[in-house]
Specification:
Layout (H helix, E strand, L loop, with lengths): L1 E5 L30 H12 L6 H15 L6 E7 L7 E9 L3 E2 L14 H13 L12 H17 L12 E8 L7
Antiparallel strand pairs: 1-2, 2-5, 3-4, 3-5
Helix pairs in contact: 1-2, 3-4
Length: 186
């Protein structure tokens, strides 16, 4: 079981509805001593890395942070699956993610570059085709559509390196996200 504890999108200019893997993680609570439960769980979180496996610790850590945030954008515990696997959590959608962290969908597939080259025109075509297929969480509803989008992005990036991401797009995979906490708790 791969679990992430995720908050708001990392970049404030990203799609505000986006609920994929490229979101903030909980931090150390500097106002409280290291011996406090929230900071002990933070130490556990850091030791595990961004992907954790202990569901009860993850849920408790998110719960403690959400109580401190009192209605502000909180954290949710999300199970991330690969290869179309399912979870007992509430389905959020499919992201195009590298290492369960970075995402090609955080921006909602919007284009910020003017169409000055044939590659950018093709990139805009991908955006216009796939962006309307994103669900209310800024993710794809099916792994098939997510896989097709990623395949098309790979092909175009091979022709024009750096068009979608600086790194090789083969590091990205369609991953399923399932919330283990009610969005009302967040």
């Amino acid at each position: 079981m791969n679990l992430l504890i995720l908050g708001s999108p990392v970049n404030p200019q990203a799609n505000p509805l986006y609920r994929g893997t490229y979101r903030t993680h909980p931090a150390h609570c500097d106002e409280l001593p290291d011996s406090h439960e929230i900071n002990r769980l933070y130490s556990w979180f850091r030791e595990e890395g961004a992907v954790v496996r202990n569901r009860s610790n993850a849920l408790r850590f998110a719960e403690l942070w959400n109580a401190r945030l009192k209605g502000l954008q909180g954290f949710e515990v999300v199970e991330v699956t690969e290869c179309g696997e399912h979870s007992q959590g509430k389905f959020i959608g499919y992201d195009l993610s590298a290492s369960f962290s970075d995402s090609l969908l955080a921006w909602g597939l919007r284009r910020f570059v003017k169409e000055t080259s044939p590659y950018e025109v093709l990139c805009d075509l991908i955006s216009r085709h796939y962006a309307p297929q994103l669900n209310q969480q800024g993710l794809f509803q099916t792994i098939e559509v997510a896989s097709l989008c990623l395949h098309d992005m790979w092909a175009l990036q091979d022709l024009c390196p750096g068009l979608f991401a600086i790194e090789d797009l083969r590091a990205y995979r369609p991953v399923g996200l399932f919330s283990l906490t009610s969005i009302n708790e967040v």
